[in-house]
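Query structure, 356 tokens:
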């Protein structure tokens, strides 16, 4: 006697699903359908003018050539991760590397001269020689190393710089020397938008104005401070000398020990460099109304210099210099365990776009 037709339909349905499941398992076990391997943080090193530089190459070990980005950190004693000896474990560059890998982009970040595992190397006996020129040489060596990796598509290399690191990113992107890798796109996060000492002078004036309004400084005291500072800047630019003592703690910014490195930075005009970028280069430029170092009114001249590029200018609100949500921009908050601002993440999504 035949089975109930309903039972036969159920059995056939179960058999069909069993076959489908076996086919799916077989497909997943075949080489062509395996899930991509996880991202790895590989310790790497390369040499720049006699200095061995150590860094982290974040990539998939089995990846075909694809997009890759060089990450250049902030000024001062800031290492590959964006951590600073003064402010603590900030993590800006590490977080940026992780965000980019989520979008299919391999990254290289590194300890520049005087930081992290790299240290001073041959500059140990002459630390005052470590300045902008040394950092730029390191950045160029880094992008050459990244370009030489099997997982890097030479036509899809980008450079992202933060703060003063954006200046070195511009130096890399405008490098026309033989063999220099072609930079396909550029990210300038909270960059310097003028000569270094001019920017410091503007900040000194703004701070003194605020102190006068608060009644903590008299107009005469403010005038004396400005006079002493501008004279020191003129002296430094003329013959590399500075007074032994400057008022208002300004000797911490400009002194005999750092004047050589400061002048190297001051000699570079990021706005002029921006004008040298190839026409149509995709550029992501950010500023913030809360960033004491890169407020939007100060960064705006950079937009005019980048008018010939494919510019994405993003004005952040309430975001600190280290790209975290904090309208106070207090250095004491830089190392708080806080992610990068969602505003920055959104800007990065729009800039990077879908990755094949």
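Result returned for the query:
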């Amino acid at each position: 006697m035949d089975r109930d037709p309903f039972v036969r339909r159920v059995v056939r349905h179960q058999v069909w699903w069993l076959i489908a499941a076996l086919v799916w398992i077989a497909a997943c076990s075949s080489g062509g359908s395996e899930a991509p391997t996880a991202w790895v943080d590989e310790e790497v090193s390369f040499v720049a003018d006699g200095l061995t530089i150590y860094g982290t190459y974040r990539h998939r070990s089995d990846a075909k050539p694809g997009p890759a980005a060089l990450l250049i950190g902030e000024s001062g004693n800031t290492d590959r991760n964006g951590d600073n000896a003064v402010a603590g474990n900030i993590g800006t560059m590490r977080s940026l590397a992780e965000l980019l890998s989520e979008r299919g982009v391999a990254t290289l970040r590194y300890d520049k001269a005087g930081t992290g595992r790299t240290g001073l190397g041959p500059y140990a006996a002459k630390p005052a020689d470590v300045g902008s020129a040394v950092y730029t040489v390191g950045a160029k060596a880094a992008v050459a190393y990244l370009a030489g990796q099997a997982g890097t598509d030479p036509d899809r290399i980008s450079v992202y710089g933060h703060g003063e690191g954006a200046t070195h990113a511009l130096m890399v992107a405008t490098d026309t020397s033989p063999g220099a890798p072609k930079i396909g796109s550029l990210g300038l996060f909270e960059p310097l938008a003028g000569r270094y000492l001019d920017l410091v002078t503007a900040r000194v004036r703004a701070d003194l104005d605020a102190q006068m309004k608060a009644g903590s400084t008299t107009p005469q005291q403010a005038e004396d401070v400005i006079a002493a500072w501008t004279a020191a800047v003129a002296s430094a630019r003329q013959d590399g000398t500075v007074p032994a003592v400057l008022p208002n703690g300004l000797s911490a910014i400009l002194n005999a020990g750092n004047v050589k490195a400061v002048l190297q930075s001051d000699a570079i005009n990021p706005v002029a460099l921006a004008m040298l970028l190839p026409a149509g280069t995709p550029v992501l430029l950010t500023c913030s109304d809360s960033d004491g170092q890169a407020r939007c009114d100060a960064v705006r001249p950079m937009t005019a210099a980048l008018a010939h590029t494919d510019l994405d200018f993003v004005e952040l609100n309430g975001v600190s210099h280290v790209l975290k949500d904090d309208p106070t921009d207090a250095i004491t908050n830089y190392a708080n365990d806080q992610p990068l601002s969602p505003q920055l993440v959104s800007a990065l999504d729009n800039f990077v776009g879908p990755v094949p």
